[in-house]
Amino acid sequence: MEIKKAKFDVSGIGSALLDFMVEVDDSFLQKLGLTKGGMQLIDEDRSKEIFSLISGMKIETAPGGSSANTVAGVATLGGRGAFIGRVADDEYGRVYIKKTTDSGVHSLISAGDGLTGHAIAFITPDSERTFATHLGAALRLSHEDVDYSAVAESSILHLEGYLFEPANLREICYRAMDTAKKNGVLISVDLADPGLIGRIGDVFKDLLNNYADIVFMNEEEAFAFTGVRDKNALEKIPSRCGIAIVKLGEKGSIIRHSSGFAEIPPYKTEVVNTNGAGDMYAAGVLYGITSGKSIEMAGRIGSYSASVVVASVGARAEKGIDLKGII
């Protein structure tokens, strides 16, 4: 797989969401009617209702969004990342843009009407995370907001699967992918959520058959997409997709590449919060690929980087990650 040298190692397009993290027990999720481990979209009124219920709890705030987390992870590892998204011209939007820039990411985030999107992340005692997400201004991302020249000037374009459900955001994704293909940019996609695959599986089939060079899935997403698990799932991913990855949590991951399969071991750590682990794994793999590392080594970087995030409260590694002993 040929990697072109470019201004940005990874450019990402995604929903710019401010994360609000709160620890709850399983009964609280049942009270809210949320499916544990999943992501449910909510409207503004439902968001206000939930905030009123958690107002007395300890809440941690941090920038989030799957693609944004991955690009920030690339920057944390020493790569060059750019992020394209939309926030509102409000306090949360300004905080989001500042924290994006502070993380070393080149911000291509536009600001406009509405409310800045946010994800309320409920963390249960087993460290599982469940999301109630109000997309807000993120849903209003338009072609005018997207700097397609930044996509053309990247080694890899990374997209989160959630973008492919709303029709307007799907159009942006396809235009960005067409731009990438015309300019020799590899296309990376995270399938995001098994429920999403159930709703728009045909879109993802087209995506993997005709566009994606790199695809990330966890074991439940892989099962939702292929009907089988682990290595068997990877064998059912279209061959056009040169690098296909199934993340197995505490069991590590499996990567199918041009020369066969690579089993990547996990790095043991104290689990504090699984929020963002998959995004940081993707960051490590993409950083490894753009740095010229082997697929096996890129997987190890991803696995180790994810372990750092799992041991922290937020969805990102706030400090640089020391890869000595890994590479």
Describe the protein.
The protein is α/β, with parallel strands linked by helices. The protein has one domain (about 10-15, about 65-115, about 135-310): Ribokinase (UDP-N-acetylmuramoyl-L-alanine:D-glutamate ligase, 3-Layer(aba) Sandwich). About 40% of the residues lie in helices and about 25% in strands. It has eleven helices and 14 strands. It has helices at about 25-30, 45-55, 65-75, 90-100, 150, 165-180, 195-210, 220-225, 230-235, 275-290, 295-310, and strands at about 10-15, 15-25, 40, 60-65, 80-90, 105-110, 120-125, 130-135, 155-160, 185-190, 215-220, 245, 255, 260-265. The strands form two sheets. A nine-stranded mixed sheet has the order 6-5-1-9-10-11-12-13-14. α3 crosses α10 (about 275-290) and α7 (about 195-210) packs across α8. The protein is globular. The two termini are about 20 Å apart. The mean pLDDT is about 90.
In terms of topology, how is this protein built?
Elements: E1 8-13, E2 17-23, H1 26-32, E3 39-41, H2 44-54, E4 59-64, H3 66-76, E5 81-88, H4 91-102, E6 106-112, E7 118-123, E8 129-134, H5 148-152, E9 154-160, H6 167-182, E10 186-190, H7 194-210, E11 214-218, H8 219-226, H9 230-235, E12 243-247, E13 253-257, E14 260-264, H10 277-290, H11 295-310
Parallel strand pairs: 1-5, 1-9, 2-7, 3-8, 5-6, 9-10, 10-11, 11-12
Antiparallel strand pairs: 2-4, 7-8, 12-13, 13-14
Helix pairs in contact: 3-10, 7-8, 10-11
